């Protein structure tokens, strides 16, 4: 690891970079989308205007001393307050932007808007699109196939479901946004993943969720498969403790998805019913550890979370943000070993991720050469995906 540990931390200081486009283009667009989705009052409009102006040009302000979780952000933000949003680590800047956005809409304040998820309308709409309907109907066929085939299809469903996040679609176009064809994976350790969960083993699977809506639905279907086919005795689903990165799943989103499944027709309803029962008898647990909304890499996880991961037979990290936190949000040479980068992780870990930011490790030379030769933006377009496992 030591030869690559100095890979540059990703920041948004370079005009034209992906990170810059997220802060300078996606974030202002998101503020307007949230503003339009709710009948907010003048105070919230003023706060949203202030956040828009500040995050475009200003320096990063600390939270007010009376703010919810002020003390934690004082520590997390010590080195960054007072600097430009573009000069601090990209991971930190995005995370703090979401914290400030919640503040602006009154999420933490006493009053009627407390606890109202500003992204909920978008997450809910996703559950009722024709695509979601078709994906649920397709389960009638998929769940009749042999178990091994189901496993293969469902892991890909969960993987490509990651392409569906709203933050990504705020700037993606064409095939990137609609998610047309799915090319071969740039790394595919699916076999290693399933070998860690043999049928009949007393495994505990931990799934660290990413997005709600159209990603969480296939995640839940995959979890049902694992429990129903005896590949794990227990599953722990980790979600975010508060709304984050637009579409990230919270407990409320899990409940919405379960209701959607249970209320669907055919095989999907069976999945919903089984998962509902699994929550009732403790085979499935939902947790929302506080660290999942920290602006930090998993290498800095606290002891209790470390112990939790250590107790799992396998931890599956869903999505791009979890990948960045898992391997470190740096410009690694793409052939850097995934096993080395995740060596600190306290147990077997798998990443299921579509490529939507600059970070990438664990590729072989020929794959990198082919991608470089064919596409300018293969790291960030969302057109490619991977399954990587460290056993
Ligand atoms: O974790 P997800 O949902 O797969 O992806 C989230 C994400 O693509 O959105 C941001 C840009 O809006 C990226 O920086 C980030 O990694």
TrEMBL record:
Keywords of the record, alphabetical order, are:
Hydrolase, Manganese, Metal-binding
| Cofactors that this protein relies on | Mn(2+)
InterPro entries membership? ARMT-1-like_metal-bd_sf, ARMT1, ARMT1-like_metal-bd
Which catalytic reaction applies to this protein? beta-D-fructose 1-phosphate + H2O = D-fructose + phosphate; beta-D-fructose 6-phosphate = dihydroxyacetone + D-glyceraldehyde 3-phosphate
User: What residue stretches are annotated with the Damage-control phosphatase ARMT1-like metal-binding domain?
Assistant: 24-366
Has the keyword Aminoacyl-tRNA synthetase been applied to this entry?
A: no
Q: Which domain of life is it from?
A: Bacteria
Q: Which Pfam families match?
A: ARMT1-like_dom (PF01937)
Family, per the entry? Belongs to the damage-control phosphatase family. Sugar phosphate phosphatase III subfamily.
Protein name, UniProt field:
Damage-control phosphatase ARMT1 family protein
**Which organism was this protein described from?**
Streptomyces luomodiensis
